[in-house]
Amino acid sequence: GCPGRLLELKGNIRVLCRLRPGTPCGLVSVEAGPGGTVTTCYRGRQRRFHLDWVFSPDASQEEVFGELEPAVLSCLQGYSVCIFTYGQTGTGKTYSMEGPPEDPGIAPRALQSLFREMGTGGQHRVTLSMVEIYNEAVRDLLAPGPPERLAVRQGPAGQGGIQVAGLTHWDVPNLETLHQMLSLGRSNRATAATSMNPRSSRSHALVTLTLCAASPPSAPGTAGTLHLVDLAGSERAWKAGATGTQRGDPNSAQRLREAQTINRSLLALGGVMAALRARRSHIPFRDSQLTRLLQPALGPGTTAVLLLQVGWGAGGSFVCEAPPAGPQALF
Ligand code: ADP
Ligand code: MG
């Protein structure tokens, strides 16, 4: 059994919000819980956001994961689940997703919970892949050599899906190996980011676990998938996008274009999620590598959870608006 209140997440998109501790309460007030509200007051402007779930600033890693665990465990029944952390640099995306060793975040807890649930019966085969998307270039973080740019192609007709040419998929026999591979991937991400650009916060990191039922012998469609995505910092898209969408701004279109070039994939992700939530017939998956890669994970019947991180971002700027073109449309 998978106890918990977010079990009904199956087949849905949900936006959750976590406030970084230390966010002054004069600026933000929170009604935590399901259907929570965040009220921000910044430069005299008040805004209210309604979210599917709001964690109070003192919510523990355990509490955050507790809400996500049922969705995570639904992978063992063949569901596809995608968890994102979204927000400005410095608002706690990596803290929530990875966490410090002494207080692990969503990813390590999810893996531990999955392996605990699978037990030692060997009924599942677990495979891992890990990529980074930096400036629309996709790199394998677990490849034996230095990370090379990989081509993303449409899979064979009829099979749907996306193929990343040359991407390595690793069999993971146990939790210990999994943790070792993840830390290898993380160190490769850091190296790759430094040689091109010191800001590792400008890349998305995608961890994909495939859980295949091995007994009874697996039939097509029984594989569950868990995607854990630590997104790039949203600050640029945020600023340009927020200005660009202001009514009466003559440069609005230009600013919006600028935002799209700078942080196209975050906008694309927002666009995809908004289209999925509105049940539109056209879902713009092809607008970015991120959404192309995640297309199978965001299609019908899949579960997506976006954890919106709020607080003081990089450079002391305060996040007081909904992200551009994205979750904004969901509120
Ligand atoms: P991001 O990945 O969004 O750039 P980080 O996860 O690196 O942000 O967080 C920025 C800083 O804030 C780090 O020093 C991190 O340890 C701290 N931090 C973020 N969220 C929390 C939290 N919930 N509790 C304690 N420290 C946090
Ligand atoms: Mg980070």
Round the Cα radius of gyration to an integer and report it: 19 Å
Structural class of the secondary elements? alpha+beta
- As for the number of domains, it is 1
CATH topology: Kinesin
CATH class membership? Alpha Beta
- Quantity of strands, as a count: 16
What small-molecule ligands were found? adenosine-5'-diphosphate, magnesium ion
Q: Provide the CATH superfamily.
A: Kinesin motor domain
Topology as H/E string?
EEEEEEHEHHEEEEEEHEEHHHHE
**Unreliable spans:** 1-7, 194-199, 237-246, 323-331
Strand content: 25-35%
Helix content: 25-40%
Give a description of the structure.
It is a single chain. The protein has 331 residues and is of the alpha+beta class. The chain has one domain: Kinesin, CATH 3.40.850.10. The chain is 30% helix and 26% strand. It contains 8 helices and 16 strands. The protein has helices at 61-73, 93-97, 106-118, 175-196, 235-244, 252-277, 289-293, 295-298; strands spanning 13-19, 28-31, 33-34, 37-42, 45-50, 53-55, 80-86, 124-134, 137-140, 149-150, 152-154, 162-164, 170-171, 203-213, 224-230, 303-310. The strands form 3 sheets. Strands 1, 3, 6, 7, 8, 9, 10, 13, 14, 15 and 16 form an 11-stranded mixed sheet that branches. The longest helix is centred in the C-terminal third of the chain and has 26 residues, at 252-277. The chain is globular, with a radius of gyration of 19 Å. The model is unreliable at 1-7, 194-199, 237-246 and 323-331 (pLDDT under 50). The structure holds adenosine-5'-diphosphate and magnesium ion.
Briefly say what this structure is.
By secondary structure, the chain is of the alpha+beta class.
